[in-house]
Amino acid sequence: MIKGIGGEILWVDLDKSHIDKRPVDDETVYKYLLGAGLLSKVLYEKIPLGIDPLSSKNILGIATGLLTASMFPQASRHVIAGLSPLTDIWGESHAAGFWGPELKLAGYDAIFFTGASSDPVYLNIHDTEVDLLDAEPVWGRDVFETDDILRERHGKQCRVLSIGQAGENRVRFAAIMNDRDRASARSGLGAVMGSKRMKAVCVRGTGRIEVAQPKEYLRTMDRFYERMLANPFTPERAKYGTTNLVELMHNIGRLPSYNMREGVFDEYEDISGETITEEYLVKPRADWSCLQRCGRFTRVKDRPYKYIGGSPEFESQSSLGSRCGNRNVESVLFSHHLANQYGMDTISLGATISWAMEAWEEGLITEEDTGGLDLDWGNHEAIVKLVKMIAFREGFGDLLAEGSYRAAQKIGRGSEEFVMAVKKQEIAGQEPRAQKSMGLAAVTAARGADHLYAFPVLDEAGFDDEIKERFGKKYLPEMADRLDPTYKGIMVKECEDYMVMIESVGVCKYGTQIPPEFYYDDISEALRVHNGINLSPEELQEIGERIVNLNRMFNVERGVTRRDDNLPKRLTDVPSPRGPAKGQVVELEPMLDEYYRQRGWDPETGIPTEQTLKRLGLK
Amino acid sequence: MATVTVKFYAGIREAAGMRSKEFEAEDISGLLSSLREKFGDEFMDVLLDEETGELKRFYSCMVNGKRIELLDGYDTALEDGDRVAFFPPVGGG
Fold this sequence. Notes:
A: alpha+beta, Aldehyde Ferredoxin Oxidoreductase Protein, subunit A, domain 2, 14% strand, B: alpha+beta, 5-stranded mixed beta sheet, globular
């Protein structure tokens, strides 16, 4: 019997207001683990083809990992998945916090929502008691109000996961928030939750999690803690979080500015981690079992951007700052805060606004379209206004709420050229002309443009030793060189397999990928002492590979082929104009050829071969 | 000798007490000597590994955005106008 888990899965039928509890199936765990793997398997089998992602036929799944709520460093994660209303293919998003561990302590490893409720509801879980309740008191409320109201009603120790107005209004990049300002942001799954009229999941878990080998578990975790604390990244990350990535990215030419026209931002110091830390930081914050403490609270003391709350991470600084040509740091902080309040993905939000700004500069969008709003680069007042207009689908915000791809399709006039997206999802804050592996990762990721599915950071800033250990000396120096496309297909494939496995055990990429402190052998050991599961590093790698292939098949069955594994022409055909990556383009095709060969996918179509599917037990 | 702009980030900036400064040096080894002369041993302890005398694990030195490990290491020659950046462990996305 598997230890270290909640043990049950909730199936919530919103059509019939019926809740079913089913046991976790051991066989599935050995083949897919939990978290992302479990969701991949179940949703591949259950979500019908040819449906509207915002119809009641879609299924929304939420799952914790095998190590979530354990003492493994940074084991706070949960995963959410479904058919994405932004990309119309596999949608997946993850978050840290305390909500996931609380769900496990209540005795559940996953929740699946099917159907749609006629009236707004929320799910209240208190250990074995699980009820669908009338959401009238919180429907129309923002994320923070919802958190306040539900915790007032059900107890301050409850943990709340909810959508804000953006999800209710089916903004195609709406997030699902937890613990107030933790976001499962990408893929627009907040709109799916809104379409089901499911406002929130309020959880209180007072149970215990039985560990397989308690003494050995404590010894192992103690050792892992020592290693994590001794890692040179740990104190730096606790001090700056991810905010000082702005400085690094500008220096390597990877900081998107002006809708990814460039990879440097002359005013980067204004929005930098150092500026935020010195002038706005309240304190760092840590989620469950987190030693990295990259979260933080910030405060702007004066109007018009006065607030106190969660701090932006690098992605928000980039998307709402440099990407929009915006050097006003207080507006970056405040618009990020508003995005959390209304529940939106800041990456797609900033990227969609920056698309509109470039189209405005080119004269393709005018005041007639915007209702008089001036979209000059860096107009921070317009950016802040648009955040609310998008969340509430007001005026021009209604168009932008569709995401940049659909907005450009509607506007036309050549504005499609300025959409910086892959498979309809906006590319994150990684200018790929300055890091070729990120370009490849953005096109191969299952959920459309995405830096986290592979998170190929080994070539970013000095992991030569880790490359040598994982791949072998013969791959150096090329694999470690950001600007060299050589061997990046091999690296991205390896990183994808590892990262989806990590998302299936519920621990953070910080600690397992950057810094690369823990690897397959450590996860294998943790699963043995915590869960009583014996899976070798090789078997865990194969599970990762199986999940990636299953995600690919989910997309292939919805029409995705090699043709869709493509970047905007700006990134493959137009040399980077300035900075350390000046003259660079992404050499995508040779990297893709190498990637498909590594994967065992047909290089012509990008579809997994029969042989590959059989090898992984998917046929 | 080349005149280069050196930028310090995060904990290294705190140890230096400044964001950037111009230095004259022929290569990275020479620049490190100049840094020691200017800021003293305490600053170099932040930057360098005591045993190896090289940058600490995960610390980066970049010349015009390129890590010195991918150039000529500590022998990387400097030219007038080069931008040299020193970073403590930082990375991700």
